[in-house]
Predict the structure.
Amino acid sequence: MRVENVKPPPPSTGLPPLELLRSFEAAARTLSFTQAAAELFLTQSAVSRQIQQLEASLGVLLFERRHRALALTEAGGVLQRAVVESLERLRDATARLRAVPTLRQVAITCTPGFASFWLIPRLARFTADHPQVDVRLSAKLEVLDLERDRLDVAVRFVPIERGTGPALFEESVMPLCAPQVAKLLRTPDDLAGQTLLTIEMAHPGDPPTTDWEPWLKLMGLADVRMKNTVRFTHYTEAVAAAVAGHGVVIGRMPLLRDLVQGGSLVAPFGAGAASRRAYFIESSRRAAHNADAQDFIRWLRAETEAARRS
């Protein structure tokens, strides 16, 4: 095939069809249309036509046709190096992708208190049963949007009348303190000699005993007076101070149940009062298509039921 017989390339800067490049690579590597055809499960004439089509599209000869032999032209050598390099990069990329397992993840949001006192002590049971699942936990007071923040599950702590989704458990509240402090508390009047451990109120101007109101009503008390007050940013800090014997905190049950059962905290005045707040499970639209998220929701409910029976 002479150069003058090659048709000029069409006015296009796009890639030639990939099947032509595949036939060219095989023919350039074996320097034989016959062997290339055998590799590609084509006829020798089909490979020859494809090479001619490729040459016509590029406007250059890629092979010198000799008697019972082929040789690459200079242009053919340039194209062969480019095609081989591109194929090698594609093979490397696909090998890396196949080596990376599909990420299985459950993304959760809840309050820091729920995470610290209830979820984290139990979470190892879920991860043990689901070792291939990554758990991403966002423990924040901020209410995150499940769809915008690409989350699967939320455990919301809200007034009961505002709850949506399945309820995990309702909350009750009671004063809690370390055992050595409890020895000094025989009646609520004895709180006057103790330090109130509380958190910053959500609404400025609210008294530091706002969270105590359900218990105060249960006890028939209008208010509680204590020696002094220490305020914390997070409830977990106030509880840690109570465990250390620095004062009295309003205990949220059943979040602090493990600390009470373990003896780190004591309820000096007996049973608690319903706060009319509860923890509810919400799930995003994406969670409906995430089998691991559905497993996590079932696990949350099973753990709640097991704790209720124990």
Q: What stands out?
A: The chain has a mean pLDDT of 90. Strands lie at 63-66, 69-72, 104-110, 133-139, 153-159, 167-176, 195-199, 228-232, 248-253, 273-283. The longest strand covers residues 273-283. The longest helix spans residues 74-99.
